[in-house]
Every structure is written in structure tokens, then in C-alpha cells.
Design the sequence.
């Protein structure tokens, strides 16, 4: 029997705001940060996970993670790993903690960190990368990972089981295919709002040369800037190259419809986060008005109840998932299943710090065992901060290549965690000196 | 010039779970708690506010409040009080903090605590109870308190201005009327799920004798229990007495429709929180299916974007507001205005600890200067923990009576805060001994 006797949370922040990496219409100066969790047995097995934030408030996220320590500390790790779905439901339905959401915000993301840490531990124990661990699971076990409450009418255990069973005969072949050809990536690197036209042009050219089949530009702060920048990008990329745009919640509903209509001539592949992420009916209204342009959202989607509504109402043509916004792998499996049933393509949100590393596992799993699709899909990719990870993503020729390293690729190098520890790590102490 | 040089947060918890006060289908054992904030000038003016929670996680809520201290500490209090709307918007749109919501959960409620504390300070300074301070404001200033972003198409500055201007000629008369006749209350005291039928019967009888014109029962855990308990209540109250029921999010959508259909014969005045509070489309579906029974929700509504959707979609026949769930007085004014424009009656959520004290001010203000209505409305009332407040609610003959004490009635007695301080206050140390 292995007992969990170690639980450590860390506030790690990277001073990315200095170079305007990651700048967009709503987030002019993010410091990409991780509320980092490691727990397990001091004797050996340690699981890693984190919640991505963009700076201030990362300490609150750490406090929320700490408030959950009693769910794992002192517990039998074997039991926890045998039924991660059980602990996930216990945490989500802890009535006192539930009051602080429910199913949203800081506490919900903290639950995600604990759940994801358990999955990291289990994948390490079974000596498989997380994507493959999930992809090799029996349909019955996979369907048991989902919490079906509030999904009444949208997803039942039987439906999920059917979905996972249907993929069974194809899984081995798809694993081979994934290893052989990778999974499409798209890049946001050229499109940050703080970049000059010259930098945008240069980076777009480089993106295409590197093999990316799709890029994304930030929009929404100034309409004439957007039109100018999209013209620059179109000139570089050519008429038919997929260029998505992302407004980062900048608009009201009517404003979104007007603005998107003016950008329509550039044929955007999708328009992301046109308005407030909670406004399901607003997204529905926008989607109807700008059709056939596809509306995308999801990186701020708090969980499966919002996903269900976005999908069922036709509010999204593309659903985006985030590895650390919801209550972890289990809730993301529910969301992937909801999307697969309605045939809504999933384009995972990534970037930040550690998000590419984490979400690739979900996308690979989706291809092998859920939707069975990867060609009309792509994982977001941003080329920064990967050097801090023990098992960084492998992206080349515009594709993510699956890792074979056991775990969920969430482990950040110890020295990075020390160097960028906030507020006392050497990188912060020096920069404030 | 007065500078803010004092900012103190406290974790205060009452061990209410011991007596099953407040037990319902989702919350079997709440410990009513306050993440308590006081700030201002050590020389004199101190504002008080709190976020209500039900126990575990109250420490995380306190941490979130602390993360906002820099917005007020060291600032000129006169400037802050002159334009509370400005600070409210600064906090809500702080891009780094916004990532942790946006507009929801622990961080959003923490913003509410700071905003509400400023209103408490301003009301004290102007020597008026908060409800009267707001009710005496010029329409122009009131309309300026609202953040209209994401309300595009639902509420504009001009519409809000029109609403507040329309009330102007009636406000003095309504203030008199309020002081003369009070504001209707309804009570949940008889209906907690943990109570026996005998206790329910006795408390319902007492509620009617005390002058309450409406009671509410918790339902949703067991259908035959609900039917039996509603029969008991109907027998005591008579055929036409308004009895509301509250399922506290227990059901899925189809389950809610079936269950409510079986309770329909008891003619419930409304059915509260039938399903997940984020499920706007689910509430819409339920409301259509069980019409004319009214669906109510709102105590877990994260803010104005959700309120707008619930109202516009016809998902609610009654909107409930909570004083500490959203980003404070300013956001609640937006929600009251949204409801008034669509003529949706507001029945404020209260109970817990400090919620009755806080929310009465919003209801009184709504009557005087927003909806102009109070007879088809009522504020929830639960008779416990009021003794811990410096200016406790005045409820008699089934009505709330307006306070004349300057401030927002949010100040908890110092000795209560010490006694029930968690985990080191004497009441907790003794009970764990």
C-alpha cells in the first residue's frame, strides 16, 4: 500500500509581460503563470499538474489548491488511482466547497489540478503517456469516468459507452497513424496584438515555412488595425490559407456582428471569443447572424454544463477545450463526448505555460478513441516557455508528435520552479532589484 | 484627505451544521460562514462587508479578498467614494485577475466584498442607511454606476436613466410608504429538509401566526418525502396560501419536469433552483414545460450576463438576487434594472449569515427607485444568527422594516468575530476539545 504523504503547491510566474508575448485585446500584459501542484509518495511516485493563470491571483489559485489537500493527503494512493472518477465527483459535490462555484472559477480549477495530478500519477505508474493510457482503456471504464449529472438528455452512460465501443476496432490503427503523421497544429505566434505589421508579416511567413496549415490573429481592439493586419496576413498567406481571428471577449453581441461582418471579406476560418464566455444566447445570436463564418469559444468555458448549452444551441461551430479551466481530465472527457455526439470539431486551446503539454494528450485521445477525427482539427501552438518542461511538446512540420514518455507531460523542471518562484525566486528578486 | 490605511479580513464560521439548520437537498451540513472584510481609515471611518459561504473554502474566499487589498490600501478614500463605479470596473476588468473568472466564482465575490465595503463607508459618511443613500441619488449618478459591457441590446445607459428618472416623482412617497408598511418577507424556517414533519407543521403554524404571507419548503431529495411534507404544509396553511419550493439544483432537466409535474397538485408558488444554475437553456425548457408554475433562480447566478440570459429567454418567472454572489451593489443595480425593464419580479435570496441584513437594502432601493413594486415581491427571511450583527434586520408581522442606521447593516459584532473566528476562535477551539 502506498500512502500519499507529500503535497506541495508552488506559485510560479514568468515575466512575459515585458515582451508583449501573449498580448491581446483583453489581456495587454499577461505574466504567464502556473499554480503548480505536485503530490504523491515521498518514497517515489509523484504526480504533477498545474492551473494556468496570467499573473495576479495566482496566489489565490494556489490557496484553492491547498484547500483540497485533505482529499488526497494520508489516503491510499492505490485506491485513489483505481477510481479517479470517484474522487472527482466527491470534490465537485463537496457541498461546502460547491457553494463557491458551483462548477466554476478558482475552486473548480483547483479540483482540476488534483484530478490531473492523479492522472499524471496513474500514467507514470502504468508507464504510458496519458493519451495512450486513456486510449487503451476499456469503453466501460472510460464511460465510468464521466459525471452525467446535468447532462440528462445530452449524454447518458449508454451513449458514452456506445461512442467508446465504436472506436474500439480502430484504436490500434489510429495510434499508428498518430505516431506516423502526427496531429495538426496551428500557431498564434504571429498574431499577438502588440506586434508590429513587420513582425506579423515575418512571423506569418515563418509559420508557413515551418509547415503550419493555419494561423490565428488577435483582433478586437481597433477595427482599422484589424483590417490592416488581416490584409497583411492574407497577402503573405494567400487567398485560401486558413486564418482564424480571436477577439478575446472584447465585443458586445451587436458590436460583434457588425465587426465580424467587416472582417468577413478576409474569409476568417473562425472567429474566437466574440463576446462574454458565459453568454450562450449571445453566441447563438452571433453565430446565426454571421453564418457561414464559424464561431469558436471554450477556453473560458467553466465546464460541461456550459459546453452542453454551447453545442446544443448551435452557438459554436468549433468548440475549444482547455486542460486546466475545468475539473480536469474527467470533465474534459465528458466535453469531448458531448462534442463528438453532435459532430462539433474540437480545437484545443493552448499556449500560456504548460497548456500545449497538457492538452495534446486530450486531443490525441480524442482522435484515437472518441471522435476518430484529426484532419479537420488542430491544436493551438505557441512557441514559448516549453524549455521549462521535462517532457516538452514535439512540434515540427506544423504538427504535434505524440510523446512516449510516461505521464501527462505536466512536470516543470525543478530549477525553473525555483528560478521563477513568486515573489521570492531569483528571477523576480533580480528583476525588482 | 483621508487615506485608506486599514484592511483586515477574517474567517468567521458558525457551527450551524450541528442542528441541521439550513439543510437542503444539496447542502446537508452547512456551517454558515463569512469571509469578513473591514477597511478604511484607522482614524475613524471603517466599512464592513462580507462574502457568505457555507464552511470549507471560506479561507480561499478570504485569500481572494486579500488579493484585492492594493486597490484600496494607500488610496485616497474621498476619491474612491466619489466614484465607486470606477473602482468596480477597474477590478472587474483587471486583465490578470479576470482570467480566474471571468465574472464568476471566488474572485468575483471578492470584488463584491470590496465594492460593498465602499458602499458601507459611503453610507456611513452620508449618515444614511444604504437603501436611502441609493434611493436619494440622482438618476444620472445611478445610471453611471452600471457597467454596460455585454448588456448591448438589453440595457443601455439611456434606458437605465429613463428607469431611474421615471421613479423620481414617486420616491419620497414610496419612502414614506416603506417606513409605514414595511416590505413583505417570506420565511424558509419551517422547510429545512432535516426537520421532522412535526417540526415542519409547528413552524409553519408559527410562521402564519407571525404574519408571514408565504413560506418555502426544501424539496428534491426524495419524491415521496416531498409529497408528504407538502401535504402537511398545505393542511396547515390552507388551499390558497403561497408555498414555494426549492430544489437547490438537485435535478436534471427532464427529472425536474417530471418531479415538478408531480408536485403541481400542491400549487407551488414557485419552484426554485430546479437544476444547475448555469443551465439557462435547461431552465427555459423546464419553464416552458411546467408553465404556469413559475421557475425561480438567481442565488448562484454569477452576474449580469447570466441575469440577462435568464430574463430574456423566459427561463425565470422570478429572479432572485444575492448580495454577495455578484460583484457588489453596482452589479446588483444592473440586475435590478434588467429585471425591471422586463417586469420580472425580484425575490431576494437571504438567510445564511448577514444576507438578510445586506439584501434588504437592495430590495428597499428597488421599490423606491427601480421597479416601484413591493406587493408581488418578498425578501426571504430566516430567523438565525441576526444577534451577531450591530444593526440586525427588523422583521415583524411578516415584514421587513427599513433601518435608519447609517451604513449597509453589514457590521458584525467584534465579539462574534472573535468567538467564531476559524479555526482559532474560542467557539471552535472548545467544540473541538
Sequence:
Amino acid at each position: 500500500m502506498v500512502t500519499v504523504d507529500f503535497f506541495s503547491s508552488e506559485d510560479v510566474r514568468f515575466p512575459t509581460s515585458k515582451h508583449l508575448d501573449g498580448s491581446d485585446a483583453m489581456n495587454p500584459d499577461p505574466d504567464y503563470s502556473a499554480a503548480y501542484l505536485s503530490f504523491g509518495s515521498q518514497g517515489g511516485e509523484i504526480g504533477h499538474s498545474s492551473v494556468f493563470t496570467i499573473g495576479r491571483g495566482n496566489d489565490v489559485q494556489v490557496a484553492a489548491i491547498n484547500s483540497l489537500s485533505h482529499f488526497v493527503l494520508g489516503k491510499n494512493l492505490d485506491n485513489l488511482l483505481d477510481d479517479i472518477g470517484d474522487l472527482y465527483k466527491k470534490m465537485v459535490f463537496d457541498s461546502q466547497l460547491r457553494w463557491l462555484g458551483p462548477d466554476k472559477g478558482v475552486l473548480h480549477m483547483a479540483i482540476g489540478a488534483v484530478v490531473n495530478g492523479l492522472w499524471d500519477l496513474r500514467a507514470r505508474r502504468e508507464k504510458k503517456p496519458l493519451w495512450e493510457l486513456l486510449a487503451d482503456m476499456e469503453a466501460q471504464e472510460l464511460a465510468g469516468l464521466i459525471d452525467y449529472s446535468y447532462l440528462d438528455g445530452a449524454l447518458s452512460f449508454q451513449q458514452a459507452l456506445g461512442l467508446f465501443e465504436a472506436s474500439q476496432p480502430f484504436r490500434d490503427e489510429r495510434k499508428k497513424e498518430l505516431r506516423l503523421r502526427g496531429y495538426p497544429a496551428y500557431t498564434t505566434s504571429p498574431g499577438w496584438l502588440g506586434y508590429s505589421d513587420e513582425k506579423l508579416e515575418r512571423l506569418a511567413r515563418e509559420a508557413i515555412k515551418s509547415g503550419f496549415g493555419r494561423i490565428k490573429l488577435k483582433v478586437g481592439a481597433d477595427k482599422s488595425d484589424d483590417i490592416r493586419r488581416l490584409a497583411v496576413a492574407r497577402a503573405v498567406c494567400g487567398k485560401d490559407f486558413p486564418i482564424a481571428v480571436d477577439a478575446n471577449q472584447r465585443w458586445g453581441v451587436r458590436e460583434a456582428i457588425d465587426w465580424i461582418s467587416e472582417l468577413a471579406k478576409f474569409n476568417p476560418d473562425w472567429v474566437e471569443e466574440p463576446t462574454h464566455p458565459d453568454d450562450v444566447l449571445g453566441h447563438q445570436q452571433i453565430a446565426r447572424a454571421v453564418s457561414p463564418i464559424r464561431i469558436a469559444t471554450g477556453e473560458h468555458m467553466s465546464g460541461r454544463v456550459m459546453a452542453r448549452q454551447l453545442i446544443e444551441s448551435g452557438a459554436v461551430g468549433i468548440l475549444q477545450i482547455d486542460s486546466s479551466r475545468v475539473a480536469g481530465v474527467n470533465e474534459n472527457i465528458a466535453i469531448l463526448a458531448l462534442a463528438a455526439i453532435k459532430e462539433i470539431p474540437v480545437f484545443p486551446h493552448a499556449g500560456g505555460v504548460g497548456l500545449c503539454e497538457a492538452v495534446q494528450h486530450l486531443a490525441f485521445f480524442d482522435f484515437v478513441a472518441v471522435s476518430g477525427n484529426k484532419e479537420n482539427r488542430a491544436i493551438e501552438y505557441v512557441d514559448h516557455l516549453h524549455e521549462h518542461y521535462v517532457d516538452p511538446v514535439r512540434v515540427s512540420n506544423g504538427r504535434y508528435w505524440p510523446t512516449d514518455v510516461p505521464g501527462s507531460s505536466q512536470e516543470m523542471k525543478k530549477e525553473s520552479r525555483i528560478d521563477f518562484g513568486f515573489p521570492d525566486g531569483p528571477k523576480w528578486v533580480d528583476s525588482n532589484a
About this structure: The radius of gyration of chain A is 21 Å.
